[in-house]
Design a protein that fits this description.
Elements (H helix, E strand, L loop, with lengths): L9 E9 L5 E9 L4 E2 L2 E2 L9 H5 L15 E3 L6 E3 L1 E4 H4 L5 H13 L4 E2 L9 H9 L9 E6 L4 H15 L4 E6 L6 H6 L5 H10 L3 E7 L4 H13 L6 E5 L10 H4 L1 H6 L3 E5 L15 H10 L4 E5 L3 H13 L5 H15 L6 H4 L5 H4 L9 H9 L2
Parallel strand pairs: 7-8, 7-14, 8-9, 9-10, 10-11, 11-12, 12-13, 13-14
Antiparallel strand pairs: 1-2, 3-4, 5-6
Helix pairs in contact: 3-4, 4-5, 5-7, 11-12
């Protein structure tokens, strides 16, 4: 049964305000949540940035581990809270010493970070393997574990799901996402007969995953089409991952076009590429802490950042500890610093080149086209 606005669930939201004197006040108000699907359509009505306060207000400085320095935020409507900063999985597999990878992941969890990102294809599986080793000795129970797979067919996705679970040495992940939804045909293939969505749903039924999302970095219109395609198939995603940074705001912007839809429909927002894999820093316009604070100031559930050494973990922890909501003037000044260099997209290589498109470089990872499409193609060969 799909909820309509009239019978949508009602939740209490506690708004926490901290003034310059560190006096904290809070007010609990009642809000009605509008689900993603209303009469099989995506609710894409505009939302004003002032409403982002509600999303940001779901931040708590008290974590389940007793840490008061790492904020926790609601993961959409899942009922879960995750650390506002997350550990990116790609860099974990590139560290020269595998033992250092384990040490970094465990140190992150010990210091209050709970959200862990990964993917089946990162470094040929090495990223998942190292994270799996780090999650031994009780660390798995303290983490919210996410990974992604590339398969667009049911067969390929199912195979990759099982391989990821073996790599990670766990019987389930908390969140599984479709990786690199960067082409308009990706949603069609995923939701086709014998498409990857069937593998995800069967895996969820079997207890191999809890929540389902998707990620992509190329074009906000592809994200919107993925949401629309899901709605046509009466499916609701739990999370959406996308680039959110000080360059994106000026060029082919996920912040402007996709983020309001996610907030409107109470989906978990996973921000990534806050520094554009380091390329944004080459513009010499903003600092790493500014990049992280800007992304955290958006209504993100978590900002995922690559960490390949302890100093970078310290930087992420510092960003989390020192974050406070930015004023309109502070945001405007940050955005003004990047406006000129961001206009062409040259510092967002993931949008303007194939540099980050691993599935384009390895199309076999996607699996075969839908059977119906292959049969139609044969008719004209």
């Amino acid at each position: 049964m799909v909820n309509s606005p009239s019978n949508a669930p009602v939740v209490n939201v506690t708004v926490v305000v901290q003034n310059l004197d560190n006096n904290v006040t809070q007010k609990t108000t009642t809000h009605r949540i509008l689900h993603l699907i209303t009469n099989n359509t995506v609710d894409v009505r505009p939302i004003q940035p002032k409403h982002w306060l509600v999303a940001l207000s779901q931040t708590s400085m008290q974590t389940a581990n007793g840490h008061r320095d790492i904020p926790y935020r609601a993961l959409g409507r899942t009922g879960e809270k995750v650390s506002a900063i997350g550990v990116g999985g790609f860099h974990i597999g590139r560290i020269s010493d595998p033992k250092e990878s384990v040490r970094i992941v465990r140190a992150a969890i010990d210091r209050g970070i709970t959200f862990l990102d990964n993917c089946w294809d990162y470094n040929d599986g090495e990223s998942e393997i190292r994270m799996g080793k780090a999650l031994k000795d009780g660390y798995r129970d303290r983490a919210f574990l996410m990974t992604k797979v590339d398969g667009r067919s049911k067969k390929e996705a199912a195979k990759q799901i099982d391989q990821s679970l073996r790599h990670l040495k766990t019987d389930h992940v908390d969140l599984l996402q479709f990786h690199e939804v960067i082409r308009f045909e990706d949603p069609d293939r995923i939701f086709a007969a014998d498409g990857a969505i069937e593998a995800f749903l069967e895996a969820k039924q079997a207890g191999k995953l809890r929540f389902i999302g998707f990620t992509g970095h190329k074009d906000p219109h592809v994200h919107l089409y993925m949401l629309e395609t899901a709605a046509r198939h009466n499916f609701q995603f739990d999370t959406v991952q996308m680039p959110l940074n000080l360059m994106d705001v000026h060029f082919r912007s996920f912040q402007h076009q996709v983020l309001p839809v996610l907030v409107k429909n109470n989906l978990g927002v996973l921000g990534m590429k806050s520094m554009g894999a380091g390329v944004i820093l080459q513009s010499k316009t903003v600092t790493p802490i500014e990049c992280l604070h800007y992304a955290m100031n958006l209504p993100t559930s978590v900002v995922i950042t690559g960490i390949d050494k302890m100093e970078i973990l310290d930087q992420a922890i510092q960003a989390a500890r020192t974050f406070r909501p930015l004023s309109k003037d502070e945001v405007a000044k940050m955005e003004a610093k990047t406006a000129a260099v961001a206009a062409s997209g040259k510092f967002e290589l993931f949008k303007t080149t194939t540099h980050h498109d691993s599935t384009a470089q390895h199309p076999a990872w996607l699996g075969k086209d839908p059977a119906e499409a292959e049969e139609l193609a044969k008719l004209v060969e």
